[in-house]
Amino acid sequence: MTSHKTARRAGALLGVLLAFASGVANAAIPASSKAVKDDGGKYFDAKGDPTYKISPDGKVDWYTFSGFRRYNGTCDVCHGPDGAGSSFGPDLTDALKSLSYSDFLGIVSGGKQDVNTAQTLVMPAFGTNKNVMCYIDDIYIYLRARSDGALGRGRPQSHEDKSKEATDFENSCMGP
What we know:
This protein is mainly alpha-helical. It has helices at 3-21, 62-79, 92-95, 101-110, 130-133, 136-148, 164-174; strands at 37-39, 42-44, 50-51, 112-115, 120-123. The protein has one domain (3-174). Helix content is 45%, strand content 9%. GO terms for molecular function: electron transfer activity; heme binding; metal ion binding.
């Protein structure tokens, strides 16, 4: 093997390792999740649903990072670390592959109950919980990035700064 081929293979391996180290599992973002609009640091897809933006170095937008924090403050108790599921709640990274944004909002705010002869699954309603509902888009954005494979497991390594718009919305939603 020539040194040129060895160098190319080493470079390719280094690129893969850096991608995983930065928390980016798969740099190819599905077309349906691509950000086409930026509204004060909050990104939206072509349908107008909130989405993520991850730079090639693995830096995530503020809302994805906030969603990671909020998910781990409330949702991980039942749905497990990184949305991967547990014995109490389903894998949300899989569920979001077929769940629309509006369906996600409805389930989180109103709850869900599936009862059959084998099991009883209950998702409580969080519609009056400001710690969830004020950050529902953030949680959705984080889980969407995880579901698409664009964001790896664990805490994102770096993130954009929190925008004034995000601060203003948080203050108005959480209230005095």
